[in-house]
Amino acid sequence: MKRKILCSVLAIMMASSLMACGSSQSTGGDDSTVTEGATQGDMDDAVITIWSPSDKESIENWWAEKIDEWNTAHPDMKAAREAIDRSDSYAYDNKIATAVTSNSLPSIFFVDGPQVSYYAANGLIVPITDYFSDSIDDFDPATQAQCTYEGELYAISATQSGVAFYYNKDLLKECGVDTDDLDSRTIDNPITWSEMAEIAEKCTTDSYVGTHIIMDHGEGIPYALEPMYISEGKDYISDDGTTADGYVNSDESVKTTAFLADLIAKGYANVDPITDEFLNGACATELGGSWDVATLEANATFDWGVTYYPVADDTRKAVSPCGDWSAAVSKDCENVEATGEFLKWLMNTENVASYADAIAKPATRASAYDEECMASYAEGPRALFVEQLQNSAAPRPRTPSYATFSTDYAEAMSNIFSEAASTKAVDESYIKEQLDSVADSFAEDYNTYYAN
Amino acid sequence: MAKTEQKSGRKRDERIAGYVFSLPAVALLIAFLVVPIIYTVYYSVFQYQVMRPNDITFIGFENYHKLITDSDFWISLKNTFYFTIIVVPVQCALALTLAMLVSKKFKGVSVFRTMYFSPQLTSMVVIAVLWTVLYNSNPNTGLINALLVNLGLEPINFLTNERTAMNSIIFMSAWQGAGYQMMIFLAGLQGIPRDQYEAASVDGATPWQQFCFVTIPNLKGTIKYVIMITMIQAMKLFTQPYVMTQGGPRNSTKTMVYYIYTQGFQKGNFGYACSVAAVFFVIVVAMSLILQKITSEE
Known about the structure:
The complex is a heterodimer of chains A (452) and B (298).
Chain A: H1 2-26, E1 32-34, H2 40-45, E2 48-53, H3 57-73, E3 79-84, H4 91-101, E4 108-111, H5 115-121, E5 125-126, H6 141-147, E6 148-149, E7 152-153, E8 155-156, E9 163-168, H7 169-174, H8 179-183, H9 193-202, H10 220-232, H11 251-265, E10 285-289, H12 292-299, E11 304-307, E12 326-330, H13 336-346, H14 349-359, H15 380-392, H16 402-423, H17 428-449
Helix pairs in contact in A: 3-14, 11-16, 11-17, 16-17
Chain B: H1 2-43, E1 46-47, E2 57-58, H2 62-68, H3 71-103, H4 109-121, H5 124-134, H6 143-150, H7 165-190, H8 194-202, H9 207-218, H10 220-235, H11 239-245, H12 256-266, H13 270-297
Antiparallel strand pairs in B: 1-2
């Protein structure tokens, strides 16, 4: 009998392993690629290894060119970069988590802005203050703030990002919205939430919806929507990063969330928008990223414009998203000196400018805008993003529990939006319940791992 | 005497050859299954934040105690069972039906076999992305809802309504998975001697009676195998909720493996995720044993 049970257990285990093999195929196998021009052998031989999210061709080419340039000048300190798939979700963070457990982090890895505190608090990245003491003032204040944890600089970014209100002029005119008014807005006179809702209402037709507020199902939700909360009066988390209770679940936050959910409930925004919804003409306006400028310039078949991030009607306080992927030196880095020098070189004015140009994002260094390749940031939509970054950018919360917060908040918002879409109504008590659970979960994580 | 020695020597050689041949498989099983299981159980009694590998604290059965009072764990378990209970019979019945259809000899049968099997050859991630677009709630962007609206019906929030999200995943999963089981059933059907059908036909059995009293009894072993692997695969549902719904809305598609993933990798609660994984492993093994016991008795 025992033998029979043992055989059965073994059979099940074998079946499980076979299924596991099958499912690995389903998930697409390896999720990383080595930069063009570099091989896995280069990664193994390199003194300095780098992980960063995979990106469009122009930025992959930039990396290949820069790595070549460095390796030619420093044959004894060769660098190699591996591009890791991000998948619009938490896939890149999972790769880092796996490497942490096996102590196999590269010398440098790129982290999203708000994750800097998380990695710094857990000792996974080392301070790089000394390498940037001469140049740090050239970087914009939001970058400095996002990359600093407990007084030390832990990461550095070449580019910034922002979110603003894009509008399809053709569709807006079709629906009777005054686009000249939107074109004439200034940073001191941005559109308000009620104006945004009014435009969305007017522009919701049988063929397209009025607006787009869900950037993706991961970090895009807290990133793109946080300024609304700050504008209404309460951020997600306290300034010292220790508590979310009384912040993300405050009355102000419930009101902000209810406004967003109402756009979904009334059908002005899709609860499950398709990729590139604005570009495809499936929505008339959107809260879109600064990177959309290049995409629209290259592909849009309609007339479009962009204006400043909307402000709360009550406070009219201008706040806008910011933060981008930043390079950090890992705890597993074996040659910190060489890596520090490489990072210093990678973030010099010329490289920052050419990187910003290739990735089509605003540069973090003020001096980069003097470079020829950044001329397009002097006016038009790109200049608007730079102006917004300089005047109203607010970094995301700096707390070691950000990973837990981000996951739970994104999940809560998805639940709230789905509820609004299904019932075609906004239930504030349900919003409060969901946001309370985000605050509770944050408290549990913070108190378990970081309170002492 | 010499003959007996020669015989026992050959038996010994055969035994050694058996061990040698099974060694690679056993080594792989130990390395990739037994060792991870032991590690899972080991880490389940520690407070272990994945980003703090040097700060691991022994906490006994605290993770297991937390698990009992964790509503998300029970919801995930319920969802996993719901998916399994529905998808196993639906997928197996669909696979058997398809196998019966393509077991007939007619012109172009291999085209149908390839068509039914082709979803298996595509990555589940790709299929999930595709179905997310098909299921999109907006009739302007979702193909199925466009069809419904053209037929004068109301659009359905397939993936964003808690009542329909899991059933939508079940439907696409059964569609995707049936091709594989179909091939196994097909092999089983082709192994049934033709004379049994001829004898049944001579005795006046209808096609339905032939199916019940010839096909099914002969396929018993195949059915048992298919149910077992489908059940194990169903219990491990992950890719579809990860890509299509992220466990929502309102946790309606949060499954055990997805919950383990979010706890372990997104939130970094590795110790707790290990305790959930250990309990889940016991549940899957227990269910498999029960299923085997039931089917053996039959």
